[in-house]
Amino acid sequence: MQHLAILPILLPLLAGAAMIPLEEKRSRLRATIGIGSTLLLLAIAISLAVQAHADGGAGVVTVYRLGDWPASFGIVLVADRLAALMLLVTALLGLAALVFSLTRWQRMGVHFHALFQFQLMGLNGAFLTGDLFNLFVFFEVLLAASYGLALHGSGVARVKAGLHYIAINLAASLLFLIGVSMIYGVAGTLNMADLAERIAAVPAENRSILEAGAAILGMAFLVKAAMWPVGFWLAPTYSVVSPPAAAIFSMMSKVGIYAVMRLWLLLFGAEAGISEGFGGDWLLAGGIVTIAFGAVSVLATQDLARLAGASVLISSGTLLAAVGAGQLPVTGGALFYLASSALGIGALFLLIELIERERDVGADVLAVTLEAFGDGEDDDDQLDDEIGVAIPATMAVLGLCFLCCALVLAGLPPLSGFIAKFAMLTGILNPAGLGEGPVEVSTAGWALLAALVLSGFATVLAMTRAGIRSLWATTGRTVPRVGIIEIAPVILLLATCLAMTAAAGPVMRYMQATAAELHAPQGYMMQVIGRAP
Amino acid sequence: MELILALAIGVLGGSGVWLLMRPRTFQVIIGLSLLSYAVNLFIFSMGRFPVGRPPVLEPGTMGDPAVFADPLPQALVLTAIVIGFATTALFLVVMMAARGLTGGDHVDGRARDR
């Protein structure tokens, strides 16, 4: 199946386009098309991953040349392990968000399903494309769809947050264009593999322009990935958008990480000459500061949706710092973390809506204020009523899911977050490989280690507090009515995390192979350019 | 030529950044438009400044690349203009919605500063 690589772009495009002329009341047909397309995407992503990991684990890079032009002239799509992994996580999150939206959210505004398909198309395209300008185009596709999804359901809060979100992303897109054109002006190519080949030969007088272009381009990605200090937009936006949109947005911030990971390791690897490792320290430092900022926000927040938004910041910071560390085992652990945290945060965004469904706005603020200033009299009265009331099954299921989310995000055993963090920590502590070579951990390595452990601790504290507030210590609240079709997506995402834990060996081997492919991109370059570099 | 273009990009970009920082949504959208003009000119300038050279080869001829302009930046500018146009239109709609919902044109949705 040589055309498999373009299907993840074509399929949602056609599905989304087919939905637009349908009348608004035929929501059942739209939903069927949407779910069908997303299920097919999942199947395609799985087969692409199998294909990329085939050949006895050596890995196959599938290159799809549009119009069969050679790479330096034409447009290429490249499906390697990393792209296949990202497609798989996107399809899983997309499926969960779409199923979740069936009960009520799809009716809160117009063209939800079409926008959702275009969002998936943009995400898939950004993961598959092999040149910088198409990366820009797919970024714009996914952003344009996300503007629509961010405003889905309308309301003052969403429009206000959407206004900021759109303005920031438009400005970031302009940075993207400046960076791309500067790189083109110096290197004369936009194909990523071709660029990696030419980067060592760039004359010294043009090198500063090239590096400035790469830095500006990197800023555009870091705005998407929400690195401190360009990530203040993230938590306010993600906490007010509709939950299915927020779940797929948790993948969108991973697009920025993906772009940094792909381009930085490809362009500024060992064969970049004197530019080797350009900006790595900035990534590491920025990532650690982002983790710190995320940890403080997690602790400071009193609102569940904001808590999830702050977890996205921690996740982004961890990934950026791990990539910036530039060590192969750390990158492998980071990829595991990427998949696990994207699924965990997606599940959390969906779950929060279920938990908060029957609650008054501002109840959390009141609860914390009560605790801070002491209001003992009321507590005693309520205590007697509480005893003997069994937790109903709905609350038990919600609580269990919340607990799983907390474990995944904080990186506690036994779920996948722990394995990811453990892999990263092992990588940091054994730079030369486990049990090999002298163990000399740099200062930056210790800082990253401390940041990882402390952010996990902050997440545990914040999630415990939030869980007690919203699930345990709620007096006189009505139990939310939760349909099976709403809790199923959350369970699907958490079950995937569980499966990643159970099959940690094969999954981790895939991630390590992906990391090895990223750190030694000669195979990728050879396949794309069509000859030995 | 270089000086005029550089000045144009600089003035447009500087005004755009200034307007982007302003508190009214209308100023923000004008700022974004000016910035996108500056960026489009900037992309164009990355293909160097060949005057009077066509970007498309004559059919059936080999052609000498030295006498032709680089067509890629021109294609990039076209794409960037189209995308920028669409996103600006979308931003305008959101701006109108915010104006209707909050009753003011402040970017944070606050009433006019006192």
TrEMBL record, chain A:
Keyword set includes Membrane: yes
Organism field: Teichococcus oryzae
Predominant place of localization: membrane
Designated name of the protein: Monovalent cation/H+ antiporter subunit D
Domain NADH:quinone oxidoreductase/Mrp antiporter transmembrane, residue spans: 130-429
Cell membrane listed as a keyword: yes
Compartments it resides in: Cell membrane; Membrane
One cellular component term from this protein's GO annotations in UniProt: plasma membrane
InterPro entries: CPA3_Na-H_Antiporter_D, ND/Mrp_TM
Entry's family note: Belongs to the CPA3 antiporters (TC 2.A.63) subunit D family.
Topology of the protein relative to the lipid bilayer: Multi-pass membrane protein
Keywords: Cell membrane, Membrane, Transmembrane, Transmembrane helix
TrEMBL record, chain B:
Record family assignment: Belongs to the CPA3 antiporters (TC 2.A.63) subunit C family.
Keyword Transmembrane helix among UniProt keywords: yes
Main location group: membrane
Keyword tags: Cell membrane, Membrane, Transmembrane, Transmembrane helix
Protein name: Na+/H+ antiporter subunit C
Annotated TM spans: 26-44, 75-98
Regions annotated as coiled coil: none
Keyword Calcium appears in the UniProt entry: no
Cellular component, GO annotation: plasma membrane
